[in-house]
Amino acid sequence: MSSSITTPNINIQISDSSVKWIIGGACFLGAAYLFYEFVIKTPKKEIPLPKEAETFSNLPELTPKEFKDLNFNEEVKKKSSKAFNSEDYTSAVRHAVICLFDIIRRKSYVDSDGTNLIQKVFRGKTPKLIFQNMTPSHVTNAESGVIDMLEGFAKSIRKVHMHATVPITKETALREISIVCYLAEQVENYAVLVKPEMEKVAS
Questions:
Q1: Can you tell me the distance from the alpha carbon of 5 to that of 15, in angstroms, rounded to the nearest whole number?
Q2: In whole angstroms, how far apart are CA 124 and each of 19, 40, 120, 127, 151?
Q3: pLDDT tens digit string along 118-127?
Q4: Backbone angles phi and psi of 4, in degrees to 5
Q5: Is 44 exposed, middle or buried (0-12, 13-18, 19+ CB in 10 A)?
Q6: Taking Cα atoms as reference points, which of 53, 51, 80, 50 lies closest to residue 67?
Q7: Counted domains in the chain
Q8: Other CB atoms closer than 10 Å to residue 189's CB: what's the count?
Q9: pLDDT tens-digit map of 163-197
Q10: Which structural domain, as residue segments, surrounds residue 14?
């Protein structure tokens, strides 16, 4: 199947797989922008992202206005919905965070948490999970960006909400849960267990 874009003199056919990569790429750039803007808090002038990333960060998939508008990962949404609907926004984010790290443990069989979990699962010479088929073959190192986001998330949002009760607004909760949903979806869909032959390549 394919989609088509028609102008008075041009008819462009776009395959469904191409549409998928375009949308996926836009979401990745948008999520990266949100992550660096609100998690890492890098000054805008230092963000190594194209200007389009800020535009993509406003996609409804990444910047929901209500809980029902959250996208990407149903498990995270289910775990955080009760607290959110009770207006306990800090607990809602905490439940979302716990769910994300539960997903990583479940897929990797690694019993750890926080930054240690991310490093044991995705870093080093013998990672337990690697990301595959995230982007078209000619696009490289996207997986490295997701791992960086996971590690930065563990050091920031997770660390804050698991060790302190910090009052946050509904808007902040939606933004942070949206980031969790996006990261959880990447792990669920694209992270696979490293096989012995893969370990040789990784080392």
A1: 11
A2: 34, 23, 7, 6, 13
A3: 999 999 889 9
A4: -130, 145
A5: exposed
A6: 80
A7: 1
A8: 15
A9: 888 889 999 899 889 889 989 999 999 999 997 64
A10: 2-202
